[in-house]
Amino acid sequence: MTNTSPAPKADTSRLEAESRNATKAQLYEFWYYFSQNKGAVLGLTVFLLLVLMAVFAPLVAPHDPDIQYRDSFLVPPVWEEGGKAAFLLGTDAVGRDILSRLIFGARFSLFIGVVVVSIALVGGIVLGLIAGYLRGAVDTFIMRIMDIILAFPSLLLALVLVAILGPGLINAMIAIALVLQPHFVRLTRAAVMAERSRDYVIAAKVAGSGHLRLMFKTILPNCLAPLIVQATLAFSNAILDAAALGFLGMGAQPPTPEWGTMLAEAREFILRAWWVVTFPGLAILITVLAINLVGDGLRDALDPKLKRS
Amino acid sequence: MLRFLLGRLGLLIPTFFGVTLVAFSFIRLLPGDPLDLLAGERGISPERKAQLLAQMGFDKPLWQQYIDYVVGIFHGDLGTSFASKKPVLDEFMTLFPATAELALCAIIIAVCLGIPAGIFAAVKRGSIADQAVMGTALVGYSMPIFWWGLLLIILFSGILQWTPVSGRISLLYFFPQPTGFMLIDSLLSGEKGAFVSAVRHLILPSIVLATIPLAVIARQTRSAMLEVLGEDYVRTARAKGLPPRSVIGLHALRNALIPVITTIGLQVGVLLAGAILTETIFSWPGIGKWLVDSIARRDYFVVQGGLLMIAAIIMLVNLIVDVLYGLINPRIRYN
Predict the structure, then answer these.
(1) For residue B254, how many other CB atoms are within 10 A of its CB?
(2) Between chains, do A159 and B138 touch, taking CB under 8 Å as contact?
(3) For residues B292 and B276, what is the distance between their CA atoms, to the nearest angstrom?
(4) What Å distances lie between residue A108 and A252, B144, B197, CA to CA?
(5) ipTM, 2 decimals?
(6) What CA–CA distance (Å, rounded) separates A97 from A82?
(7) Which of A154, A164, A271 sits opposite B273 (nearest CB)?
(8) Would you call B105 an interface residue with chain A, using a CB distance cutoff of 8 Å?
(9) B80 — alpha (psi -120 to 50), left (phi > 0) or beta?
(10) Rounded Cα–Cα distance for residues B318 and B305 (Å)
(11) A-contacting residues of B 259-288, CB under 8 Å?
């Protein structure tokens, strides 16, 4: 009887160590499956390079993105006839260096992705957890609202929301986040409904866990895999939609070096200066492609069905 | 089946009323009121403003305005365009065939190329051909289509001069348009060269609009085929000595197509969103360009009406897809 009291302590520390090891093992396993997909590793590498480029933009960019060189309007890229070494990818119609604008533009695109996904993910998780956990009238109400949002094409709804809120980057981000949110709500709700009748949830309930603890600490961690995959998809969608809004004049406003806005400004020179149109679009494509490659890799690594096959 | 259909309809009705509420709220949520926006800097006298507000029913309580709005919808009244002074529904009906023609051509391209590409990739799983097809599909899926459209214009309209930059048909042709579908009307007109001109105008916008659905359908077909190809009945068919063509074409494809049909149905929303960008780039006189122009010139009754009609079309197509899905897959019906 005397040596019973230290036992739980030892047990707790052993359990903690075991859970740490389990997490480590899970991470190793995840990386093993992820790295099997060469495209995903390539995507991740490109994405990390883009992040570095965005963070160190003032150091990497050869020029200030807003400075207009009055003697260098529509200079072609360096390898074309008439190109200048100072402007590797040429200049736009008002003499700004395209490469520098693209480098600074990466900041906007990644910022848009992060903010939109954060808003959509947090909102989606909370609403999805509530709907899937509480069910009943609350569930019906939340899901009908999501159905209504999904009944509109996302870009159209985003356009209309921006018309209400006013054009600009922040409003565009809010609009896109709202439009992307239902996907997260649906996924979370479906995962919560699958998990809530499992033994471990019932055990936690019997042990006296409150609703909030059950929702956020017991159930949520086990629903994260599909949400992570959806988040990468939403990240690339956010970049595409924000660029589309910028292109339509409803997103970031000139002279912001946002890639979609740059394309909109370049449209009138399309038939005489191919480079002002080509490079911003290529930057969007490369970024979105890299993120989608990562998304595919994440899906493969996190989907237990694929692992078994 | 009837119960299944009624159940689906039952879900649709509250969503439709929700959509009307969104469209109704849109104008009321705008900063300022539509009349001030319309009057611009010239301003408007308070008496005239009150008169116009009363004329549009804006002086009534909100709930009554909403009821009037919904009743109006069921009578085909979506308001009047500020710019053209024509009923919004009439404008929609005039422009819709242009978008429908474009979207139909795009989905035909997407299905005719996407399904064979997906089957091919699944059958050649792991090969270089599979990786090439899926790599291309991923590029298509990641494509900013407004940029893709501009690139095609640079190449085919600028450098090669094969296709025109904008519009639905050359200005040289003028004929009645009973169907609104330029391909059909140009054929019916009997004017020499009209059909070719219509095709040349349609081809680039269709390719641009088809890009994302094509990629999605190819990816979905591949994964559905891979799942089916591993099933016992496919193995049995192979073991019986059936030629690979009939194993893939008859046994596997039929079952693999079930989820693909849903995916094709879901592309309607993608197509209508894509039409906004595609029509803007190619100056295609359809619903997408009409809405973007209306937002730009603050013709808000048009935006409100367009929003409602597009949502209604998407809901209708989703319902048809649901019912089709229930027809071909009884498990869905009974769940």
Answers:
(1) 11
(2) no
(3) 7
(4) 9, 16, 42
(5) 0.88
(6) 15
(7) A154
(8) no
(9) beta
(10) 20
(11) 269-270, 272-273, 276-277, 280
A117: tokens are 């996904």
pLDDT digits (tens, 9 = 90+) for B282-293: 999 999 999 999
Tens digit of pLDDT for each residue in B186-236? 988 888 889 999 999 999 999 999 999 999 999 999 999 998 888 888 888
Which candidate from A164, A236, A249 shows the least CB-CB separation from B26? A164
Q: What token pair was written down for B127?
A: 């090969």
* H, E, C per residue of A246-298: HHCCCCCCCCCCCHHHHHHHHHHHCCCCHHHHHHHHHHHHHHHHHHHHHHHHH
Closest by CA position to A189, among listed A135, A124, A128, A145 = A128
Q: Which two tokens stand for residue B329?
A: 């897959």
Nearest CB partner across the interface for B142, out of A151, A236, A248: A236
The amino acid sitting at B13 is I
Q: Which of A104, A103, A62, A66 is nearest to A86 (CA)?
A: A62
A247·B315 Cβ contact <8 A:
no
Residue type, B149: G
Contact A91, A98 (CB under 8 A): yes
| C-alpha span between B179 and A187 (Å, rounded) | 42
